[in-house]
Each structure stands twice: as structure tokens, then as C-alpha cells.
Amino acid sequence: MSETCIVVGASHAAAQLAPSLRQEGWQGRILVIGEEPHIPYHRPPLSKALLAGEKALDDILIRPPALYEKQAVEFKLGARVDTLNRAHKTLGLSNGEIFSYDKLAICTGSRVRTVSLPGTQLAGVHYLRNIADVEKIRRDIAAGRNAVIVGGGYIGLETAAVLNKLGMSVTVLEMAPRVLARVTAPAVSEFYTRVHSDEGVQIRTGVAVSGFEGDSRVRRVVCADGSGFDADLVVIGVGIVPNVELAQAAGLEVDNGIVVDAFCRTADADIVAAGDCSNHPSALYQRRLRLESVPNATEQGKVAAASLRGREKPYAALPWFWSDQYDLKLQIAGLNEGYDQVVIRGDRNAGRSFVAFYLQQGRLIAADCVNRPQEFMLSKRLIAEGTALDPERLADDSLAPKLLLSPG
Ligand SMILES: Cc1cc2nc3c(=O)[nH]c(=O)nc-3n(C[C@H](O)[C@H](O)[C@H](O)COP(=O)(O)OP(=O)(O)OC[C@H]3O[C@@H](n4cnc5c(N)ncnc54)[C@H](O)[C@@H]3O)c2cc1C
Q1: Which of 81, 247, 298, 385 has the greatest CB tally within 10 Å of its CB?
Q2: Average pLDDT, the chain
Q3: Which CATH number is 125-236's, of 3.90.950.10, 3.50.50.60, 3.40.50.2000, 3.40.50.1110?
């Protein structure tokens, strides 16, 4: 009698986990249950090429349908899992259907953080997490009209860049004193502020949005300091929250994500969790992490698949991220939390290519590389090696990047 592995969430992690599970030799049934009506697709283009209308859903599928067919990975889409009964090893769907599992992978990702302000129900006010959101936003894009982005994080700034390119007059409102405050050094925030204003996007920091006004459609965004901004389209991008409720209600430990070990295993021997929804121990950073990135979801998908087959493949990959805005390709290696020095390589004040190296006691812990793929690759290596570096050499842009590897 063959066993069944169910994956909850037709997600980035699922798109890796299911085929990896086959490669690991799983002979039984693999069923992915997903709330969205689509097989797994790449989410990063939602605020980039898909929003810009340069790509369609078929262009951003993580794997073609034929691959899942070949590997006998089944999907049940448009179906939300509402309950998990660990004692009976069953899942309950919102339509009342019950599914039994032998092994379970929770890959439920995250959802947008919503704001409770007057007027969020007005037409024209959007969040951005999935294809359906992009379709709605695209219907409201109109050249020459006003767009207001609430939140100056990566998704907010990427959205601003696209709407600006599509001819809208764009304003970004950020509550913190600078954009990207949670994730980068002031030097990097200043760079992005400059580029956006050069491109014609207005960035206002230190402003708290207090509501949205209009008749049935949004017409204006109002702020706590009394200021207001005309708006025909609003996109709110103020972060995400992990989808942990299914696991939590079933008694699994949750602490800023579903708590897993280095092998993506929960305390239940038959349940793994992977992607945005999970919180794992990092040997490199010596603390627990919940990462919100595609490389993390993919890597954890592989690790979780091995665990489901009883093999220990520790998750040791260096965290990395990216963001595309205009012609700027930002690649981020490592996590900068705890840095005590920032070294800039290249001209961040005038050019469109530079690196911010984040050091902690002379060792590289992270790097923001703007249009600098070579330095990005080197940074990954330098962070993993953990050797002490000379800040003056790092800053010397006349030195070929590969020379940064030698101690000088
Ligand atoms: C606009 C945007 C731009 C981004 N840009 C980048 C980028 O440039 N680089 C980068 O690295 N990352 C980026 N990210 C983040 C990246 O997409 C996420 O980290 C990644 O998608 C996480 O994958 P996941 O496997 O955890 O889950 P997700 O891909 O989020 O998928 C989770 C799926 O589970 C479903 N689900 C949840 N609960 C249930 C349930 N109970 N029953 C059934 N289904 C359920 C959800 O509907 C969803 O389809 C971006 C994200 C967004 C939204």
C-alpha cells in the first residue's frame, strides 16, 4: 500500500520539494494542495516584469506542467487547508473534504501585513502578494494619473519604479526616516532615494499615513501631520506575516514562524515546514532565522524532501536576496544585522554601481552589491570564509575584485 505525502501551499518551496522528494526515491503519492488557482509561479516578477506587463503567468511558472506530470506530482488547486489533525494524520479543507497523509510538508508562505486605517476598502487601494493582486493593480494603472505607494521597502520601491516607467506620477510614503531602513545602511537608502528622485519618483519619509479618502474610489491619501497626496491608485507594501496558523492550531511550536531544526523538521516526526513560514537555526549566524526569499524557500524545499526520506541534509546555504529597480540589479549576500562598519566601494553619489560591505569586527557579514555581480560572488565566499579583511582594500575600486580575496 503506497504512502501519501501532502504538501500544503503550491509555493516556491513546494515547486522544489515535490520533485526533490521523487529524486530522493519517494514512490508514493505526492499531492500539493494550494489555495491559489495556479501551479507554483515565481513571485518576484509580480512587482517587476509581470506588473510592467512584460510577462504573463505562463512565463513565470517555476516548472512546466509536464514536469509535474512526469514526476507524478498531483495538484489540488483553489483549495484551502483549514485544519490539521496530527493524531489522525488528516487535513480538512474549507469545502469539508478530508485528506489523509503519511508525511506532510507545510509550505504555506506568508501573507501581506494589512493596515487598519479608514478607507482601505476603497476601490484603487491594493496590496501585492499574488497574481490576482497584480491583475487588479494593472486595471488601475493609467499614464498621467497619480499613484501613491505606502511603504519604502523593496516591494514598494520596485512597484514605484514600474508605475513610474508606465507613466504614472508616483509618490512613495515611508514612515521611517529613510527608505529601506529595516534592511540597509543609510548610504544605500540615500542612493535609492537619489535614483528614484532622478527618475521622477517623489519620496517622502517620516510620514505616517492616517487614511484614504474618496467616494467609492480612492482620491487622496491623508497623513497624520495633515499633509495629503492625490491618488488614483494606492499600493500598500508594509511587510508580511508568516502563515503559521494551521501548524499552531495543531500544537506545533511557532515563534516568528513554524519552529524547525536544521533539517526543516518540526517536533512531529512526520511533518516538515519550509519557506517563508518556517523559522530555522542558522549555524553561520548562530541564531534562529525566518527568511523571506526565493533562495531560502528553494534550499529548504530540498532539505525538507531529504528529511521526509529520513536523510539529514543540513541547511547551510548563505542567505541571499535581490531587488530590481530601473537598470539597477541589487544582489545582497548575507545578513547585515550587528554590523559595526560599512565600507563603500564605488561612487554611490553619482554612479549607478557600487558595493556596501558590512563588517563586524573586521569580518564581512553582508554586502549590498548594485550592478556588481563579481563583488557579489566574492562576497558570498568572503562571508563564508570569515577571514579578517582590510577595509581600505575593500574600498579601493581600482583593485580588481578578485584581488579582494588576497589579504594584501
Ligand atoms: C511582489 C513580491 C516580490 C518579491 N521579490 C522577491 C525578490 O526579488 N527576491 C526574492 O528572493 N524574494 C522575493 N519575494 C519573496 C518571495 O517571493 C518569497 O520569499 C517566496 O515566494 C516564499 O516562498 P514560499 O514557498 O515560502 O511560499 P509562497 O511562494 O508565498 O507560497 C505560499 C502559497 O501557499 C498558499 N497557502 C497558504 N496557506 C494555505 C492553506 N492553508 N491552504 C492552501 N494553500 C495555502 C498561498 O496561497 C501561496 O500560494 C517577493 C515577494 C513578493 C510578493
Answers
A1: 247
A2: 96
A3: 3.50.50.60
Tell the residue number behind the cell numbers 510577462, with chain if given: 55
- 10 Å CB burial of residue 181 (0-12, 13-18, 19+) is middle
Would you say the CB of residue 292 lies under 6 angstroms from ligand 1? yes
Q: Count how many Cα atoms sit within 13 Å of the Cα of residue 38 in the half-sphere of its side chain.
A: 18
- How do strand 81-85 and strand 90-93 relate by DSSP bridges? antiparallel
User: Cβ(334) to ligand 1 under 6 A?
Assistant: no
Fold equal for 4-111+242-308 and 327-405: no
pTM: 0.96
Ligand 1: which atom is nearest the Cα of residue 301?
Answer: 25
Architecture of domain 327-405: 2-Layer Sandwich (3.30)
Q: Residue 146: which residues within 8 A CB-CB, separation 6 or more?
A: 168, 169, 170, 171, 229, 230, 231, 232, 233
81 within ligand 1 shell (Cβ under 6 A): yes
Strand boundaries in 191-327, DSSP class E: 202-205, 209-214, 218-223, 228-230, 233-236, 240-242, 258-259, 271-273, 278-282, 287-289, 320-325
pLDDT tens-place string over residues 227-244: 999 999 999 999 999 999
**Span from the CA of 110 to the centroid of ligand 1 (angstroms):** 6
Q: Whose CA is nearest to atom 30 of ligand 1?
A: 109
CATH number of 4-111+242-308: 3.50.50.60
